[in-house]
Design a protein that fits this description.
By secondary structure, the chain is α/β, with parallel strands linked by helices. It contains 8 helices and 6 strands. Strands 1-6-5-2-4-3 form a 6-stranded mixed β-sheet, with helices on both faces. A hairpin with a 7-residue loop joins strand 3 and strand 4. Helix 1 packs across helix 8, helix 5 packs across helix 6 and helix 6 runs parallel beside helix 8. The radius of gyration is 16 Å and the shape is globular. It starts with a helix and ends with a helix. It binds adenosine-5'-diphosphate. The site of adenosine-5'-diphosphate has 21 residues, from helix 3.
């Protein structure tokens, strides 16, 4: 893993090149954005929520602040959400149409596979919910890579792996036009620059 990372740090592929030079099966369906997810006018943004779904710090706090009070009022009707799963709401004052609230695991380095299974569950459930609700463009925050402590490179590999697999299913082929990975900090930008070309290679 670390070798892979080092190799790509030597020759990083910029997201614009990755997307512009697209000829492989999925490149035109994948994007990388660095910045505040609350500014994105996509069909749905994916929040890194907690099991209460009642708001919190980090990206969750930013999403709730930007969406306004009505978001927490809708969330209060949902009865929380299990770790590794997700629920969908309206987006109120946000420029997106929907918010998908995914609950990532607190990273447990004694049981990395258990964490991986939960993180993969977030991405998979979010994509399934998207298709069920007619959401064709979806932007993911870096679920669990903040306060929950999931190593950025490992998290990016899980995210890309699940998304790639889903885009290849019938459901994904028909239902999803574009998936954007949203990064905020340098460590996550580096992780996606390393991992994206492995999963969605430029021609
Ligand atoms: P978790 O508890 O799941 O780790 P955090 O909100 O602490 O959730 O972090 C999740 C990711 O969201 C981190 O990569 C963090 O850098 C990023 N992040 C924080 N604020 C924003 C924002 N406004 N837009 C996009 N990403 C953000």
């Amino acid at each position: 893993l670390s070798l892979l990372y080092k190799l790509h740090k030597l020759a990083p592929t910029t997201p614009s090149r990755l997307v512009a030079g697209a000829t492989s099966a999925h490149n035109d369906r994948i994007g990388l954005f660095r910045g505040d997810i609350t500014h994105l006018a996509v069909d749905a943004i994916v929040n890194a929520a907690n099991t209460s779904l009642m708001g919190g710090g980090g990206v969750d706090g930013a999403i709730h602040r930007a969406a306004g009070r009505q978001l927490v009022e809708e969330c209060a009707t949902l009865g929380g959400c299990e770790t590794g799963s997700a629920k969908i709401t309206n987006a109120y004052k946000l420029p997106s149409d929907k918010v998908i609230h995914a609950v990532g695991p607190v990273y447990n380095d004694a049981h990395p596979l258990r964490s991986e299974e939960k993180l993969a569950g977030c991405y998979k459930t979010a994509l399934e919910l998207a298709v069920q609700h007619g959401v064709r463009t979806v932007a993911f925050s870096g679920i669990s890579t903040g306060v929950y402590g999931y190593p950025s490179l490992d998290a990016a590999m899980v995210a890309c792996g699940v998304v790639k697999t889903f885009l290849e299913t019938e459901e994904g082929r028909q239902g999803i036009e574009k998936v954007v990975f949203v990064t905020f900090l340098d460590k996550d930008v580096r992780a996606y620059n390393a991992v994206l070309p492995r999963f969605f290679p430029p021609a």
